Fold this protein.
Amino acid sequence: MTVLRSLIALIILAISSSSAMAADRPNVILIMADDMGFSDIGCYGGEISTPNLDQLASNGLRYTHFYNGARCCPTRAALLTGLYAHQAGMGGMEPDHGIPGYRGNINRQCVTIAEALRRGGYGTYMSGKWHLTNKRTAKTPEDRDNWPNQRGFDHFYGTIAGA
């Protein structure tokens, strides 16, 4: 139920964030759900009824050739940066500070899709699980390095660490 609520919140935020300039540019909604198979939703041939997601897919762009890692963090890093997970610094789930591609943090050499969209004048919103930093228990805003708001998202509602 938490994933469904996060998706609904993301869709509502995306719809409500339109502006006069938005008529000239497409809206972008990127959905990632953990522990879901390629054909689990209707638009990809799944047997579970997903009419709202199917409607979004029928009017938009769908990924049909995307490499999915066995763990959620590397997959999320690849989706948000367009790089292989180890190039983004998230080769695995647990940080190994001795190996550059496995730091447990999206590195500063890569650009997230939110950073690129923000530069293009888009409002950026994220709802759900971030799980792309090893600083998951920051006590003050100064300690929040590499959280969604530092990586291009104007607003974030969700969890920093994995479940």
About this structure: The mean pLDDT is 81. Residues 73 and 131 are 6 Å apart (CA to CA).
